[in-house]
Design a protein that fits this description.
The chain is built from 1 helix and 7 strands. Strands 1, 2, 3, 4, 5, 6 and 7 form a 7-stranded antiparallel sheet that branches. It is elongated, with a radius of gyration of 16 Å. It is 3% helix and 43% strand. The chain has 136 residues and is mainly beta. It has a single domain, classed as Jelly Rolls.
């Protein structure tokens, strides 16, 4: 007799239908600085807001190596969202295990906050995000 084992996973619809486990963080970015935000579980929704009054917060899924809008490594085609005023926010209903947040301003530091709804899917089960619209 075959047993079907039901478990959380990347393709498991129920893992995304239930309310997410809350996760909150934030930090300051120096001019041109980039930080990777790694989640302990796969996210189902992420909100990033700019908490500083100066700077340009950028959100992306791969490292940009960016400074002053000049992309030098990794994210070679400017695949990022940019916020440029205090309390701007972006909510993404995406599954991922990490994001990158950078400051595209060469002269001003800025702050950001991240709120994520996490599934119970271990982050090691998430596939790498690449391809058109992500890194090219």
């Amino acid at each position: 007799m075959a047993w079907n084992y039901y478990d959380v996973g990347i393709g498991n619809v129920g893992s995304y239908q239930v309310s997410g486990h809350p996760w909150v963080s934030g930090s300051t970015l120096a001019s041109g600085e980039e930080k990777q935000i790694t989640f302990p579980f796969v996210a189902k929704s992420i909100t990033v807001s700019q908490s500083g009054s100066a700077g340009r917060v950028r959100i992306h899924f791969v490292p940009t190596g960016s400074m002053n809008g000049s992309i030098t490594t990794g994210n070679t085609h400017g695949c990022f969202w940019e916020m440029n005023s205090h309390e701007d926010a972006l909510t993404m209903n995406v599954k991922c295990s990490s994001i990158y947040v950078s400051n595209g301003d060469a002269s001003n530091a800025t702050g950001f906050q991240v709120f994520a709804e996490l599934t119970r899917i271990d982050s090691t089960r998430m596939f790498a995000l690449t391809g058109s619209g992500i890194s090219e």
